[in-house]
Structure formats: C-alpha cells, structure tokens
Known about the structure:
This protein is mostly helical. It has one domain (10-240). 72% of the residues lie in helices and 0% in strands. It has twelve helices and no strands. The protein has helices at 7-33, 46-51, 54-57, 63-67, 76-89, 93-117, 123-132, 137-141, 146-171, 179-195, 202-214, 219-240. The radius of gyration is 20 Å and the shape is globular. The protein starts with 6 loop residues before the first helix and ends with a helix.
Amino acid sequence: xxxxxxxxxxxxxxxxxxxxxxxxxxxxxxxxxxxxxxxxxxxxxxxxxxxxxxxxxxxxxxxxxxxxxxxxxxxxxxxxxxxxxxxxxxxxxxxxxxxxxxxxxxxxxxxxxxxxxxxxxxxxxxxxxxxxxxxxxxxxxxxxxxxxxxxxxxxxxxxxxxxxxxxxxxxxxxxxxxxxxxxxxxxxxxxxxxxxxxxxxxxxxxxxxxxxxxxxxxxxxxxxxxxxxxxxxxxxxxxxx
Length: 241
C-alpha cells in the first residue's frame, strides 16, 4: 500500500502537469508551424548584417558595439547574439533558424503566462494563436529579424515580473514591497532595450496597467516606473543620436 499523497500536494502536481502539457502544446505547435524555414538560406539584409559583417565575424569585435553609438542601430545584445551564432554555426543557416524558432516558442509561452498572471480569460488560447499566427512569419523565418524574436521574450518577462511586483505592492504598502520582482522587471526591460529599442514604450504600458487595474495612476506608481522611463530616455537618445 502506497503512502497517501496530501490533497494539496496532489492538486499542485496536477496543476504542474496540466501546465506542462499546455506549454508543450504551444511549444510543439510553434516549432511545427515553422519547421519549413529550417533550411532557408541567407536573404537580403542577412548578407550585410551577418554573412559579410566583420563585426559579427571578428574574434572580439562585437564588444565595441556595447560602447559605441556609431552603429546605425544600438542593438548590442542582438549583435552579441549574432556573434555567438556565427561562431557556433558559421554559414550554416539552419542553426540560426532553430534559435529564432525557439525564441518565438518561448515568447508564445510567456505571453500565455503573462495573460494568466493578469487573470485574462483565454490566456492559453491567446498564447497558442500567437505561436501559429502568420503575422509572426517574417520575424521568425528571416534571420536578420533576430532583434524581434530576441526582444519579445525579454519584454514579456519584464511584464510578468512587473505584474507580480505590483500584486505584492498591493498587499504590502511598504515602498520596497515586491522589490525583487521589480528589479527583475527592470533588468529584463534593460536587456530588451539592448536587443531592440522599439520596446521603449514599456514604461507607458506599466502605467496603463495600473490604470486598468485600479482606475487611476498613483504617485507611487509613477515613482516605481521612473527608472523605466529613465532607461527608455537614455537608450532612446543613444539610438536616435
């Protein structure tokens, strides 16, 4: 006769198993839909950006992009990722495509989790639709669009951590409530900005979240969002400059 499992533990195991199955369906569907692009070759911007780019192909040349705003776009994390891919895969494009597919699958799962944390009905279905929607084909199938597929999971992670920090701050009025989640949100947002500065609007999004949730934006909300606005301003100016 086996040892009885406490009801709470049984429920937790069931929820974990259900979540793993749901996540697996999203992941598998995403990878299956984009399987055809695995053997795609270089196209258009792939040549100047990767295949013929000495910055990507040099031994340590990518480091200069972190400290120099002279590049057309200040996306140092994306450049670093391309550098890693080039030194791992070289001219074999399959590896680049697989990385983009994995990033898109991760973003789809994170979208589901974000909507679930926000208690939005149909969160899982939204994640599944995002995984297979043709709107994402250009970003996933085109190697040069790594900046999009790399930014998405980082942006969504920042949003998840922000929502969790906000929930903790609601239950504890101390200004430092949710500090760990807040710091993780700021770090993920910073990394997303280093991947592609189009996520510059994130600070506005988090204030809109406060308004959507509570019907108003408090001074405390603005203070907690201030460092995010500072990151947006500084890196936005670097990109424009």
